[in-house]
Amino acid sequence: MKKRLSQLLVVLPILLSLILAGCSPRTLFNSSGSANAATPSVRLTRGPLTVTVSAVGNVRSGQSAIIAWQTSGKVGEVLVRIGQQVSAGEVLARLDPSSLPQTILQAQVDRINAQRALDDLKEVTPLELAQAEAAVKAAQKALDDLLNPTDLLIAQAEQAVLKAQEALDKAQREYDRLLYPRGSDEAISIANADYLLAQQNVDRLQEIYNQTPGNPETNLAKAQALSNLNQAKRLRDRALANLNWLNGKPTEEDIAEKKSNLALAQARLADAQKTLQELTSPSEVDLALARARLEDAQKTLDKLKNGPSQEDLTIAETRLTQALAVLKLGWLEAPFAGSITNVEVLPGDIVSPGKTAFRLDDLSALFVDLQVSEVDVFQVQVGQPVSVTFDAILDKTYQGVVDEISQVGQNLQGVVSFTVTVRLLDADAQVKPGMTAVANIRVSERDNVLQLPNRAIKETDGKRFVYRITPSGTEQIFVQVGATSDTASEVISDELREGDEIALEAPLFSGGQPEGVRQNRDFQDSGQP
Questions:
Q1: What is the per-residue pLDDT for 287?
Q2: Residue spans of alpha helices (H) in 248-309
Q3: Which residues are 307's β-sheet partners?
Q4: Residues 419 and 297 both lie in one domain
Q5: What single string gives the DSSP state of each residue in 387-422?
Q6: Does the reported pTM lie above 0.70?
């Protein structure tokens, strides 16, 4: 057992040295420090290169709107759900009618009145037209009568003055009569005597009736006595009424009535006299007034025949629009056709102005807004093709086209960029607004370009270089980068030639300063990037 252990102790160091020798970096290079044949590499080639500008942005819909309530109330019904397609003007939700503010309730009445006024303005009935034509004829006749009155009109006017004067005289007499006693002392004495005689006759006939036996319904003498008594009472009452009237004075109502009748008669006489005066010698004021009435009547007729003016229509339509605008506060409408992408309201919710209810997006077209550096934006033009990929959608590339380029840059943290909008051409249901997208805009095509895969170009301290593999070793060549695409770049160097073998990965060296690696001294001295 001890012998085997001693043998193992001798062999282990030898095996360990061999393993370490096999793993040494020197095995990756030849004696001159060249890369091992296992280092991945490519050949420097010439060919066409699609130049691209890369940028990152987010997806948005063609049109988007946050729909919020503009008044307060209780939600009565919600008519849409997330994902539902709606058309422009479609009602999305309504407030409970019992919770509507007073302004909206009044708007319902205002809308009816405004609609009726607008309809009346647009539609002329035959009756309205006939009335307007009659008004013109009457105004024309009135003017003609003032300018050239006929003998018949003058005679009628004079007769009207006479009748009005007679009516005034009668009203005056009736009014004056109230200011004097109703009867003389003699008339009152006679009336008083008539009343006393009538009363005595009633007393006498009452005595006869009382002394006559029997029932007036069965006894003729009793019935006759009752008849004579009733007749005597009526005569007595009449005499008493006459006596009271002669002794009485007019009431305030009597005086007011007679005074009103007098004033009315005076006004009618004045009107009749004025009419006669206008016929015989009309004043300039009367003529001007008659002409103005004729002009107004003609304008009204012309408006009915020709339709309302644009100003009248505008006023009527504006009133209707105002009423509708207030009325529509009681519900929410879709401002454009699209898809409901968010719902934040339920029936029974109490809402107030500004409370968000829905989000609406037009998903018929999707766009990506990219921020492109001011250095690259001059290469971008509307209509250029774009390849778009998404972090959330694996192994799929979408196609698009440059749709719009902002004309004003934005300074964000010292970097000026311009918004470039890309319209997706083949978006599917997986692409959603808000997603992060990486876009490569194909800005140009270059022919016969010396190019390498992007992964072959290294950079340190702002300088770019490649590793060229030669039979004698690996050398570091500083280069300039020209046109680029998403996979390859143009390399510019006086030392590189088509067909050169370029390492894709940084080679492993034997240690310290790369052994067998020659640097491009001219490039370093020149200080070019």
A1: 82
A2: 252-280, 284-306
A3: none
A4: no
A5: EEEETTEEEEEEEEEEEEE-SS-EEETTEEEEEEEE
A6: no
- Per-residue HEC secondary structure of 463-485 comes to EEEEEEEECCEEEEEECEEEEEC
**What does the longest C-alpha to C-alpha distance in the chain come to?**
187
**Residue 136 shares a structural domain with residue 282:** yes
- Range 475-500 burial, b when 16+ CB lie within 10 A, else e: bbbbbeeebbbbebbbbebeebeeeb
Q: How many domains does the chain have?
A: 5
DSSP 55-103: EEEEEEESSEEEEE-SS-EEEEEE---TT-EE-TT-EEEEE-GGG--HH
pLDDT confidence of residue 300: 84
Indicate whether 321 belongs to any domain: no
Neighbouring residues of 167: CB distance < 8 A, sequence distance ≥ 6: 265, 268, 269
Grouped pLDDT means (10 residues each) for the chain, 529 residues: 39 39 36 54 91 93 95 95 95 94 86 83 77 90 81 87 93 80 78 93 92 88 91 93 79 84 93 85 83 90 76 85 89 95 96 96 95 93 96 94 95 92 95 95 90 92 92 91 86 91 78 46 37
Residues contacting residue 222 through CB under 8 Å, at least 6 positions apart = 209, 212, 213, 214, 215, 216
431 near 390, Cβ under 8 Å? yes
| CA 243/CA 235 separation, integer angstroms | 12
Calpha distance 132→125 (Å, rounded): 11
* 161 and 301 share one domain: yes
Q: Which helix (H) or strand (E) holds 325?
A: helix 310-327
Both tokens of 275, joined, read: 């009419």
- Two structure tokens written together for 234: 């009526």
User: 185: domain range?
Assistant: 179-249
- From 410, 445, 480, the end of a domain falls on 445
pLDDT the model gives residue 82 = 95
Q: Give the 3-state secondary structure of residue 444.
A: strand
pLDDT of the residue at 12: 41
Are 231 and 280 found together in one domain?
no
162 domain residue, yes or no: yes
Predicted pLDDT at 508: 66
Contact 285, 293 (CB under 8 A): no
Are 368 and 508 in the same domain? no
Estimate the share of the chain in helix, then strand, then coil, as percent rounded to the nearest 5. 45, 25, 30
Comparing CA positions, the residue from 354, 441, 379, 371 lying closest to residue 412 is 371
CATH code, domain carrying 336 = 2.40.50.100
What is the number of residues in the chain?
Answer: 529
Q: Which of 77, 82, 109, 73 is nearest to 94 (CA)?
A: 77
pLDDT confidence of residue 16: 40
Q: Confirm whether 185 is domain-assigned.
A: yes
